[in-house]
Amino acid sequence: MTSAVTRAPGCFDPCAPLPDGTTVLEASAGTGKTFAIAALATGALAEGLTTIDRLMLVTFARSATLELRTRVHERLRASLEALRHALAGSGDSEPSDDMLATLCAGDPPVLRARIGRLEQALGDFGRATIATTHEFCGRLLDELGMLVDHDTGRGSEQQLAVLRHQVIDDVRLATSMQGTAQLAPDVARIVGDAVLGHRGLRLLEPPPDDPLARARFEFAGAIRRQFEDRARRLRLHGFDDMVQRVVDALNDRVTGERAASTLAERFDLVMVDEFQDTDPAQWTILRRAFHHRTRLVIVGDPKQSIYGFRGADVQAYLDATGQADQRFTLDCNYRCDPGVTEGLAELFGAAGLGSAGQDIRLTPVSTQQSFPRLRIGSQRGQPPAVQLRAISPQRLLRAQPARDAISADLVHTFDQLLARAELFAQGRWRALRPSDMAVLVRRRHTGEQIGSSQMRV
């Protein structure tokens, strides 16, 4: 194994053998992340690095799980067909990408072995573990058997919400009876919702000379202890409890090492998608169970970490990056024109996108597209693909007049584009249509205002 990586990521070669150890694969938007995961999984199955029942793919949301499952199945079928053509010597069907071409290279015995493995994988596809984070933890609990506390009770989110409110109120009343520093009911509810909504996060010790911070710290700790005790007695468990139960099993002083070995021996390859949206507890599971025990591939983009309100912590991604054996980046964007990626690099290339101490930067990428697919008339000097537009009035505008001015500028820009612009689509140039355009806004009301302004023109 190599030591933890601190250098900048190298460009990922999808045709190279899948490395041992832990690999971080940084994948910016539009760089073919899902395609890469499906192709890597297929390659590992074809080369005999794993079998379908010893492969685990984890992603964040159920909809993403369905898409990933579909894409892996499609890739298996396409690879099997390409291998059969290659074995038969049929030249009328060339591999559609470099990874398939690499897979189809080899002597007949090698190709037959790959075909047999993929046929087996497709036949046993129902045994594949492709799951959300919480489903993944549920599977791990099943795998651990007697090494984990198996309380099979479950509760609805409504039942758990009622219990949370009861615990917050009861602990607040108990602290008021003890004569310690009291929290106002609204403050108690805010603190309680925060600590019970993110139970995987560690409580930070307050400064010694701040009695109010000390009161909040002790209140938060009491709430967690009371909630966990009551939930266990009532046999109410939610999704977060499954995560914590796996963490507890892996950290157990007596059986933790055996639990970690049990999980590592169960899977040859674990790939985790959308890892920037994980939290410290989930990284603890992956680190304790699979890091330096089996092949672990972590795929994500810290620039897209948007689920902090659910407890996601981009620091977990950065910790994994620091401990990985190798770190790569997908360096080709398949969605954008060159002007877009170049404009974004100019805008954000030197910017630090993380908090203090978090080195998150825009990774340079090339584009598959070689020319701009949007043109305005026949003019030679086309406008830049990325623009910062600002309104500079002679006098300071209040909020609403400023919004009106921005809406008017957008509407004018749309009109100019619809009147003069052409889009290259399906191999030919055609007039730009309203359905080709989109506006991203922060609030729905803003979008409705822009839509109303467009309708009035």
TrEMBL record:
It comes from the Bacteria. The keyword Transferase does not apply. InterPro entries: DNA_helicase_UvrD/REP, P-loop_NTPase, UvrD-like_ATP-bd. SUPFAM superfamilies: P-loop containing nucleoside triphosphate hydrolases. GO terms for molecular function: 3'-5' DNA helicase activity; ATP binding; DNA binding; hydrolase activity. Signal peptide: none annotated. GO terms for cellular component: cytosol; exodeoxyribonuclease V complex. The keyword Plastid does not apply. Pfam families: UvrD-helicase. Residues 6-337 form the UvrD-like helicase ATP-binding domain. One of its GO terms (biological process) is recombinational repair. ATP binds at A27, S28, A29, G30, T31, G32, K33, T34. Keywords: ATP-binding, Helicase, Hydrolase, Nucleotide-binding. This is Exodeoxyribonuclease V beta subunit. It comes from Propionibacterium cyclohexanicum. The lineage of its organism: Bacteria, Bacillati, Actinomycetota, Actinomycetes, Propionibacteriales.
